[in-house]
Design brief:
The chain has about 625 residues and is of the alpha/beta class. Helix content is about 30%, strand content about 25%. It has a 7-stranded mixed β-sheet with strand order 3-2-1-4-5-6-7. A 5-stranded mixed β-sheet has the order 8-12-11-9-10, with helices on one face. α8 (about 225-240) crosses α9 and α18 runs parallel beside α19 (about 530-535).
């Protein structure tokens, strides 16, 4: 789904303008806490919040000085082809300035905001100013062929003569330019529809073409068909029909093929969505099929996959432009609509993003995680973790689960994704370390007799994104206690037998690992941490440094150090990470306070080198 823009209101003087934009365009208002009276979500630091939104790919409309937004996102500027739009609006609503993303919707968005405010859109992009259009930003339902829009625009602005073949309303202003000659479109072969072409008269190799997306490619295949074979079949079939890849709006197939590698790769190479239909939905197209098959019906419950999917996705007015074409493993068909295809029937494959948000503070959350959260339609997780996302979670469906409901949480997230939704399963720390990542894959791996998930849930796209783990956060606060070999041990015996935990404690103690203890205690578990202390004291000095880090990255963060022989269970809770040093770990007593580190052995290496030189 497209990420909706967010309006930032930083002061009461600009608050009415922010709400005026929101009322007309339907965007959410994020307000500076204590500085505005009403908002849909709140933030504390404007620079950090703008940076967080930008990293997540969220378009920003800031009712504030341009400099605030520039300073907020400056460190993240890298690729103008992927960065989201950023606009500033004066507090009085008289001027709208697209600062970034002019060719990714910022200019169009600026004009929409200016129309609401009866303001001036200060668009500075040369092509937009001179020709009233961004050539590389066609409207929905159109797709550009060719990647030299910058060179074409430069030649147009320098006065070189061009020919525009074909008509499109959105290019009407370009057609009236003094150095552009408008002509009727050239005829095309086969079932293809002529594109609109812009060509330099003096240099025919310099030009662009825009295609109306009026076609849907329907696909069927045997299980595990070779992606290369499908791609060859598709390209040869479309070439024979004279249909350009840019004219496709989607690839469509039966939902049983949601996880078929050949289908997924073909849609990705074509750069269009993959849309899925049930057998019953495809069977509704039976009377429209050119080549129905009783064999296919017996196998999957409909008389045609490729033709049926193409017709179902292209719409009721569509007709087959290419009847079913077969190879030994693949079938394809193309349906053509009389109009542009913008709203796609069927459902998406569905995606589950397993994200770790770190300890909770936004600055420790990776940009990839923020982007996946921003793109998600539904957030699933323990309520506290979703709350820690702050304004980024506003306006999204959310399903909160209590502690202890881990399997229900993961099962629900998978089944929601199976409906075609984009779901984010929100975990603290890193989702693959003592969190939900492993459980998701366990559920997908189970059979129906072992309370696994539905077949549809096993076909969703699962994305894992790393986060800052509790042990990394604690180590960073301490200094460098993980500078040499380390391990992590959970002291919770809810899912792991106690004897296994004790066995691992002995092994880690004998191996002289730095140890990070997760889940050290709970209301009912009060003895294992003390037992761990005694096991470790048999193998390392009594003054071995221990770090206790509670509520890392949150305002109530509390870090302190203890000797191993003085470690007390009562000052540890479930929000505390316990880092126990190895026999080599040290506390460096610095002016700012102690810092914990574990030497890697460089001093011994240097001593050895020096002694060798002396010899």
């Amino acid at each position: 789904m497209a990420v909706e823009p967010v309006i930032l209101a930083l002061s009461r003087s600009g608050e009415p303008v922010a709400h005026q934009i929101a009322a007309s365009l339907g965007f959410a208002v994020h307000g500076r806490d204590g500085r505005v009276d009403q908002a849909d979500a709140w933030f504390g630091n404007a620079l950090e919040h703008a940076r967080d939104l930008f990293a997540a790919g969220v378009p920003i409309i800031g009712v504030c000085a341009s400099g605030i937004l520039i300073r907020g996102v400056a460190a993240l500027l890298a690729d103008k082809a992927s960065e989201p739009p950023v606009l500033s609006v004066s507090d009085d609503g008289s001027v709208v300035v697209p600062l970034l993303g002019g060719h990714r919707g910022a200019n169009r968005l600026a004009r929409a905001v200016a129309a609401v405010l009866e303001a001036t859109a200060a668009v500075t992009t040369a092509g937009d100013v001179a020709l009233g259009v961004a050539l590389d930003e066609p409207p929905a339902g159109w797709r550009m062929q060719g990647g030299n829009a910058k060179d074409v625009m430069a030649a147009l602005l320098s006065g070189e003569a061009f020919t525009l073949e074909g008509h499109a309303d959105w290019l009407a202003e370009l057609a009236t330019a003094p150095n552009v000659t408008a002509r009727a479109p050239r005829a095309v072969r086969g079932a293809g529809v002529a594109p609109v072409r812009l060509t330099c008269d003096a240099n025919p190799g310099l030009g662009l073409a825009w295609f109306r997306q009026q076609y849907v490619l329907g696909l069927g295949c045997a299980r595990n068909a070779a992606p290369g074979d499908m791609w060859t079949h598709v390209t040869e079939t479309m070439d024979a029909a004279g249909i350009a890849a840019e004219a496709l709006a989607a690839v469509a197939t039966i939902d049983l093929k949601a996880d078929e590698p050949a289908m997924i790769e073909t849609a990705a190479r074509l750069g269009v969505p993959l849309r899925l239909f049930t057998a019953d939905e495809l069977e509704e197209q039976a009377s429209r099929l050119a080549k129905p098959s009783t064999v296919v019906f017996a196998e999957v419950g409909c008389h045609g996959v490729a033709e049926g999917a193409a017709l179902a996705c292209a719409g009721a007015d569509a007709e087959l432009a290419v009847e079913k074409a077969k190879t030994s493993d693949c079938t394809c068909s193309v349906a053509a609509s009389e109009t542009l295809i913008s709203d796609l029937p069927g459902r998406a494959r569905g995606r589950l993003s397993i994200v770790g948000i770190g300890p909770g503070q936004a600055t420790w959350r990776t940009p990839e995680v923020s982007r996946l959260v921003a793109e998600a339609e539904e957030l699933v997780g323990y309520g506290l973790y979703i709350d820690l996302l702050g304004p980024l979670a506003h306006g999204k469906m959310r399903s909160d689960f209590p502690l202890g409901g881990e399997e229900d949480r993961c099962r629900y997230a998978l089944e929601q994704a199976a409906k075609g939704l984009n779901v984010a399963l929100v975990c603290s720390g890193d989702a693959g370390i003592y969190a939900m990542g492993a459980l998701v894959f366990e559920l997908m791996d189970r059979g129906a007799d072992a309370l696994g998930v539905s077949d549809a849930a096993k076909r969703v796209d699962v994305v894992c994104s790393p986060g800052v783990s509790a042990l990394q956060g604690a180590a960073a606060r301490a200094g460098a206690p993980l500078g040499h070999d380390f391990c992590a041990i959970s002291l919770s015996d809810l899912l792991t037998p106690r004897e296994d935990i004790v066995k691992r404690l002995h092994a880690a103690a004998e191996g002289d690992f730095v140890i990070a203890f997760y889940n050290p205690v709970s209301m009912r578990r009060r003895t294992l941490l003390a037992e761990a202390r005694e096991i470790l004291l048999a193998h390392r000095p009594a003054d071995t440094p221990v770090m206790l880090a509670s509520s890392l990255g949150r305002p109530e963060e509390h870090v302190r150090y203890r000797r191993l022989d003085e470690l007390q269970v009562d000052e540890v809770d479930m929000l505390t990470v316990v880092l126990v040093g190895s026999s080599h770990s040290r506390l460096a007593q610095l002016g700012e306070g102690p810092r914990m580190f574990t030497p890697r052995g460089y001093a011994r290496k240097i001593d050895g080198d020096l002694s060798g030189t002396a010899e």
